[in-house]
Amino acid sequence: MTTAVLGGGISGLSAGYYLLRRFGKPLTIYEASPRVGGWIRSETHKDRGFLFESGPRTIRPVGLPGANTMEIVEQLNLPVRAIPRSHVAAKNRMLYAKGQVCMLPNSPMGLFGTKPPFSQPLYKAFIHDLLAKSTLAKHGDESIYSFAERRFGKEIADYAISPMICGICAGDAREISVRFLMDGLFEKEQKYGGVLKGLFYARYKEKNSTKPGIFAQEQTKMYLQSKQEKWAMYGMDGGLEQLPRALRKYLGENDVNVQLSNPCRNLTFSDNGVRLSLRDADLPVDHVISSLPAYRLAALVKQQHPSLSAQLLDIPYVDVVVVNIQFEGNNLLKQNGFGLLVPPCEQLPVLGVIFDSCCFDMDGNTILTVMMGGRWFDQWFSDQPSPKKLLDTALRYVRQILEIKEDPKFCRVHTHHKCIPQYTVGHKHRVANIRKYIKTYKLPLSLCGAAFDGVGINDVILSARRQVEALPQSFSHPT
Question: Which residues form a coiled coil (predicted)?
Fold first, then answer.
């Protein structure tokens, strides 16, 4: 069997890794751009002791998805930079709300007492959940904002859930499905009539269950080390782009062909497989795994399967501006931490600011990453501003929010168009229908990547693995 993987981002490279491990060759990965890694991009400045990340910078070692990623990282023998839960970057998370920087609670004691931006102690949100009536959601879904407001009150929805969604997917919590992040809590609430009730009953059932641990196959040395040392997150020496680079190197050493600057322009399905229309040739293969954004795959299948194309286009995307800033000196921040988020109700173009130099040593520099736009990109930047105007906007709010008066020494501005898919209400059902269509028409096509099974690094890697493992074992034998 010949297999083609579309997309050389982290999910496509992972699909290649798992295909190689399970079936061997022949296998080719086609990437439209001249580099691998997708939105993961690290810019190192070794002479000045710092690096910029214009995409993700850390990975969480949590649960099965986290353990699964660590298996690859360990296989590639990549040196990591761990941040334990005791680290200031793990403990201190902040909001900019009501004209001030507010520290979020980082211990159980923080639930008692009133701290801005909240007008009452947070423990009352749990009482609200216990007293709130159960409401069955229409069509089995609702927005994460609606869910949080129903169960915990408006302040939690405005100042906890909404900024969290901004930080994760640059989206509007009033539109994002509760199943995006809180699927388990939502299911428990619907079944037992409340979140806390559901957690209690579920915990009781788990204690009385003899079900084997789901992590049994994933307990690598690195995963066990992360548990023992209580890692909150980790990055890579030289930046997170080392992961896709190492994956490409590993695949190349095992005779997997990774073709750059070679986009697929059309897919034609038949009883014999798939024909890929590439830059210089048409190529027949037996199966395609697509890690492409949904809208890009939609264009490839539109001619032959317009209905599938339309369903893929129903998954929206947002544009995000990322501004990396270097200041000389490491004592410019009044409060160290991972960074801060800005709730949408503040009506600012800034989604959040990451304090990179608090997470990792930057050789005496203060390194910040400002994120802007997202779901509100058109509202703030519809006039397609120049990089200078975007930089000026970012610096204005850095001065306003963080009270940094110094001028930066070095900056980078990136506008990432259609970079993050939005899991709006009904997304789970939408993806199920897309995969049902593929199954009904027996298309030799598998889907992985950020558009379908989660937007995080752990999610897209695990998505690739599950799609490969769903292929029949006979897939490895020639027809």
Answer: none
